[in-house]
């Protein structure tokens, strides 16, 4: 069963409370999403570590309920550039 976009957002915000999350359904099938996650907690953190934080927030749902997630992560000051 596909995972709704609002559930993905809820899980990410639960783990990263200050995150601003934008979810886009890429294929219209509820299975392939893009997520843009902006959080002050990402400042000074490598892209790999940021992605690991987001995947950890999803609690093992990648590859199961959630087939594909294209991630873009940033700290707020990176967006302002």
UniProtKB/TrEMBL annotation:
Pfam families: BolA. InterPro entries: BolA, BolA-like_sf, BolA/IbaG_stress_morph_reg. PANTHER family: BOLA TRANSCRIPTION REGULATOR (PTHR46229), BOLA-LIKE PROTEIN 1 (PTHR46229:SF2). Belongs to the BolA/IbaG family. This is BolA family transcriptional regulator.
């Amino acid at each position: 069963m596909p995972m709704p976009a609002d559930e993905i957002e809820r899980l990410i915000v639960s783990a990263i409370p200050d995150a601003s999350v934008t979810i886009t359904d890429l294929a219209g099938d509820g299975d392939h999403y893009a997520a843009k996650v902006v959080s002050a907690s990402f400042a000074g953190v490598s892209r790999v570590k940021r992605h690991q934080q987001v995947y950890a927030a999803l609690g093992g749902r990648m590859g199961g309920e959630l087939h594909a997630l294209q991630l873009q992560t940033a700290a707020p000051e990176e967006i302002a550039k």
